[in-house]
What does this fold into?
Amino acid sequence: MERFKSVKRASILGIIGNLFLLIIKSLIGFVTNSQAMIADAFNSAGDIISSVMTFVGNKIASVPSDDDHNLGHGKAEYIYSMLISIAMILMGLFVFKDAFNSIFNHKSLSFSIWLIVVCIVTILVKFSLYLYTSNLAKKHNNLLIKANSKDHRNDCVITLCTLISSILTLNKVYWFDGLVGSVIAFWMIITSLKIFKESYNVLMDTSISEETKNKVYEIIKKHSEIKKVIHFNSTPVGYKYQISFTIYVDGNLSTFESHKIADDLEKEIDKKLDEIYLTVIHVNPIEVEE
It folds into this structure.
């Protein structure tokens, strides 16, 4: 399936790009003792973890339904998104502690032109990855890629702050380096909490959005033979939903006629709404006055 192949390519590119950035950031960060650059390196390490989990989660989610998993393995996408967020929160707390302490007890920071070079390279790499993953996220509505896309975008802003702090060290403004490191860590935590919340909502079977629900009702309204709709329910299945509801039709119709109405409606909803994985309709008779 093209959706899963695209996610696989994006995760592999993320691993390669972030591994390269981790190496150069760590090397320059520890040589110059820049807390902002060290925090940025930890952020890249977290990005590698994120890309690896994206790869694994996508691989599991792509497995079709079987006897043990009748609705497929789509929720693996959200389980691994949640694991990514937890790993990033823990890493963010660790980086925040060191960076915040360095504001008041800063170590000697030595400026190097390589700090500037690494920042520029990082921004170029991350912005390219952001454009690529952002398009994929919109095309396939994938939470894993959406999380990666936001992370790449945030990294561009974070590294821009690191670049500013590196330039300020020329004027012996050392406290800003620790401040930027703290901001980077705080941003990592906030972004991770948002991903955690979105994953949690799906895993806890949060109902379909009101917007999509209204789309379903708009389709139903076009069928005048349907007199009443009750018991509308929805269940997340990966990035889509299974919905079920009961319709009432003229009790004078034959069993074949009433069930054909339901069958046709199921096919129409599944075809018109990408958000819907499966539609299940129960039919009840209702007395209709002539």
